Amino acid sequence: AKPLKMSEIKTIAVLPFEDLSVEQTERYLGVSLADALANKFGGLKELTVRPTRTVLKYAESREDAQQIGRKLQVDAVLDGRIQRIGERVRVSVQLIRTSDNVTIWTGIFDDQFTNFFTVQDSISQKVVQSLALQINDKERERLNRRGTESADAYQEYLLGRFFWNKRSADDLDRAVSHFKRAV
What we know:
Elements: E1 11-14, E2 18-19, H1 27-42, E3 48-49, H2 52-55, H3 65-71, E4 76-85, E5 88-97, E6 102-112, H4 116-130, H5 137-144, H6 151-164, H7 169-182
Parallel strand pairs: 1-3, 1-4, 2-4
Antiparallel strand pairs: 4-5, 5-6
Helix pairs in contact: 1-6, 6-7
């Protein structure tokens, strides 16, 4: 692979993470993790991030990340898999350059679900490092900011975001219910 230039990656899409759980009951985690990472990257001046709503249609796609990235007209795609077993969560991630389908960075994170914030923080920091982005203190603080330290509240928030992104009346009601429990 040719060396990565700092200026080469200016746009990125964070695809919904594929749910690898046996019962396929954790789909909300994959969508919500992608949404949370897109929000974190959205505050970086050197990087343009495609909104979650734009990439949601690829949640069930069998296309490879490079094809999706080209359709979204981005320089790179963050693609991943998520698996939750009981209170453990494993996330595998790869950052792929769409011009030549080269994997810029890959990582596996295995932790307690209660440490899901740490997993998100680690992924975002590794992506920033792999792209050699120059971020200021304000961006670094935003990248590492957490809305809560409560894993239960955060799980309710993630469920709320998952249903909110579906944009149907019933799903919006479900989202509100989860947001209220998160509060």
